[in-house]
Amino acid sequence: YVTCSPHLAETDLVVEDVLRARDDAVQEDAGALLPEVPESVDGLAIRLWPHRHDTDGMYLALLRKRR
Which of 10, 30, 37, 48 is within CB 3.0–4.6 Å of 5 for a Cys-Cys bond? Predict the structure, then answer.
């Protein structure tokens, strides 16, 4: 799940809602995708900030369907 919004209602809360609603979904550690920017890791998600990372604001969470 990726969004350019920094707002909790459009980031963490969306992921929490999906995980609560679907017992076949699990959140993976997204931090491994961006090891060169360790300060972007926020729990299991990645957050990029314009003032820190010289990029647009971004949020990334990895969701996987359990088998």
Answer: 10
